[in-house]
Amino acid sequence: MAIDLSCRGAAVGLALLIAGVLLRDRRDAPARLSAALLVAVAASAISSAPGFPRPWRYWSLILAALSSSGAVLLWLWARATFDDDFVLRPWHGALLVAIVGAQLFDLWPARTVLRGDLDRPLSFVYLGLALLAAAQTLATWRLDLVVGRRRLRAVVLVGAVTYSVAGFFHGLWPAFGSSVWSIANAVGLWALLSLSGWSLFQAARMQQASAFLPTTDRVPGETSAVAPGEDKPSAVDAELLRRLQRLMTVERAYRREGLTIGALAAELGVQEYRLRQLINEGLGHRNFNAFLNGYRIDEAKAALADLGQKQVPVLTIAMDAGFQSVGPFNRAFKAATDLTPTEFRRVALAKHASGAGNPDDVPGIGQPD
To answer: Global pTM?
Structure first.
């Protein structure tokens, strides 16, 4: 009991400390979701402690609501952290409210005999959300260029998902090994949060050490992340960077169907991890697809603004630039220019017709990707 409660107390303190540091230092969606998830973990550690009142009292339903939100928040956090294009939608909030509401309805003290009859269905829902979080970590793993974030994926995949699956099976057979599960639960939470805290402060130290490096994707034409005359960080090989840029701008490797970072590394004759580091730290890209799409969008913009290609279908231009279908092309183009390809072409050709000059003068056109 002493070990159990001590680990839970340490886990709660760590969770709230890390949440406070995240909210102090960052205001983006992953940070807010991380803080909310950590609060849910703290509530779960308290409400599952030995001796916590059962059946649930009205006052303890606040902890139940926070704890039951953890599965949804884990999934949303994985989406926001590992998918650079993820945007929170109203239906995400509706899903969170629905699951929390179902859990509170199941635990409501006034239901007496019927209380707890939703435990098993909700356990399957929580397991499904944990598996979706795992799927998100795997889906874009190969495309991720940020070293710290790739390591974080392993923590999420092995740690958080294993914990969720163990909790699912314990929920099916709560009487089996309850004391062993309670201690394992407490120790596991403390270990996961300790690792998370260490990773957070390591990432902060690395960010401070490399504060001069870019944090967002750059325009393909730019040749270096460091201003001329400044020393490059040791991770950026100037000769390798020139070879990569020649491969992309002269040979137009981005047009190749199914181009992967492994194939590109093999062509350059370097290890894959070195190429990831080069693209991330030397050119400022966080995702391999974003790196390729920067060149593809650049070529598409030039073709759409070309009077000689005004009769060429948008689909043909997209395919020539390296996109496999028009849907991803439209989304990437809209994200880069705030215009659809058709709108971009219409405005660009109108500028040519009026003799006003470069279509890049129009707001939203030719902005950095």
So the answer is: 0.69
